[in-house]
Amino acid sequence: MRSESLHRKIYEPAVRESSHRFIFLAVWFVVFLGAFISGAPWVDHTGLLSCLLGGLMLIAPPKIALPKLWWILGTSFLVLCFASFLPAAWFPIPEWRTHLESLGVKTGSHVVIQWRPALETIGFFAVILLSGLWLAGHRASSMQLRNTALAFVLGVALYAVIAEIFRKELAIYSSQFGFFPNRNHTGTYLAMGSVCGLGVILQSLKDRHFWRLGLSILGTCICLWAAFQWSVSRGGVLLIAIGSVLWLPMIGRRYLGKHGSKAIVLLALLIIGGYLLNESQVKKRLSDTSEKIAAVAENEDPSAAEPSESENSPTLSSVDFRVPMALDALDMIKDAPLTGVGAGQFVYVFPQYRTRTAIVNDAIAYHPESDWLWIISECGIGAALILLAMTLLALGYGVLSIFKGRDRAIRAACLIAAILVPLHGIADVPGHRLPLALASFLLFTVSLIPSRKSENHRNNRSVRLSIQLFGLFPIFFGICLLLGKWPTGNPIALQMGTDEYGNARKSFVEVTNPPADEDFTETFKKLTTARNQLKSTIDRLPLDPWLRRLDGNYASLFAGNESEVKKLFEIEGTLSPTSVQVPMRQAETALANHPSLSAEAWSEALQRSSWLDNNLESSFNFKRSTIFEIRRMSYRYPQLRKMADEVIRAHQ
């Protein structure tokens, strides 16, 4: 009788769940699938997940009415994302944009220069936002809470095991652990599973549900082992520590009881002992980082008699590359604080502001290593503040729900695991990954307790129908991404540059290495067709440096058009103003038909390398390396050796 009463108390709450019975496991499946396919091309995995989410919105509209403030904030965020579509003349125009216009680059009349990919990126933001608001309108029963949390932990554990098998045994995917392109995103996923698992373990212990306890211990141990031993992400380990520290105070000593306190102490000893006793790459990375931070603190100690002036003295920038990245991103934000440069435009505009990060000279910076800085730089401070307000509102809503209801251990763990995504977003970009954002929404939603008053706050039929209609947008967006084009026939701009670069590069190889029996007229026709297609794409993506590079390569195939080639080279150089490799590649391209342009490119490369050596803290000598490359390049053309020597002497 006692066990039946306990079962009824736990699994038959006074208020029934306010959701469709399958919805949480269905969303869990989308998260689980998304974690595995996240390494696929962005348009493919985002398109598939968007279609699945839209289908779930149609099938299972939310039953609980969210506070109107949530919808107001969500709408405000999307509206502010369009701030970059305001006229550019309303704001100060940066010098680099004026220079591009003087070279004939069409920058348009809006703040955002490439409006097509910006519009598509805002569509992606809308899919994420709609998914979160839709899912938050459901409520999980105690049984659904336990099943979903356990499924999530086991799903993360299974992901880790499969990833390790692929990495170590099969070597199919890559040598990197995990299927996310960024190893830190795998670390975030493992941390979410670990923290959630701690809550499931403690809740199962209090419920005296031993098969659930056994499964949760197994899943959590695998997640922890993967984070400490298989993964190399420092962020994952730190998130586990932070999440555990945040979770314990939310439970409270009274709730834990005598047996719960003993279980927590035992778990803590096992986790800390396991980490300290095992040697791993991530442990070494954390140790090295700690030593660098300690060295920086010692060198910058104001009580020291004399500051260290050793060339090898560590600086804050040398501890982690995120520091100079953030500083350069802040310089970028200063030029467009209210509007941003446009959604999805960071990778194209950031090179204009690369000073501290120019030390990694030819690396591509796709984002500023922070979700929050990414949003500010692309959509403006206003959009970021709205997003922050929504995050804090959700956190407060979740905390109040936990302290008012039962099952505190598991609900608190789910909530803390959910906020690891925006928390990690301070120093990485997990929030821009749809599977991780959706995992955060899922855990947040199941952490909310069904209120006895929820019957009075249910969505009426017309509201549910409206939200179902909203679900048509993710389906439409996803289908267009999968097909690679919009109903108008225009290609997806976010993928167009990559596709055209691949096609144009293939055509370039074909026309420069034609079959022996092919007529020159036919080769010239192919070249003209390929370049016209390339120019058409450049008109839509004028800031794409890779397309500009190929355009210069095509133009350099002919003699007698030196002014055109010079202009194309200058445009490409302006798009990457601190890169030494850009003028060096141009020099090699022009050697055959435009040797004078090669000399100019060598001179530009030496100027840039001298600036890097004089302004950046690095043991690498850029100028010496550039001189070596110039001599190597000119060695193949004896008639150019004298020209190369003259250029080098002019910069010594």
From TrEMBL:
Skewed-composition ranges (Low complexity): 304-314
UniProt keyword Signal present: no
Gene Ontology CC annotations of this record: membrane
Domain O-antigen ligase-related: 221-387
UniProt region (Disordered), positions on chain: 297-316
Membrane disposition: Multi-pass membrane protein
Name this protein carries in UniProt: O-antigen ligase family protein
Organism of provenance: Luteolibacter pohnpeiensis
Top-level taxonomy: Bacteria, Pseudomonadati, Verrucomicrobiota, Verrucomicrobiia, Verrucomicrobiales
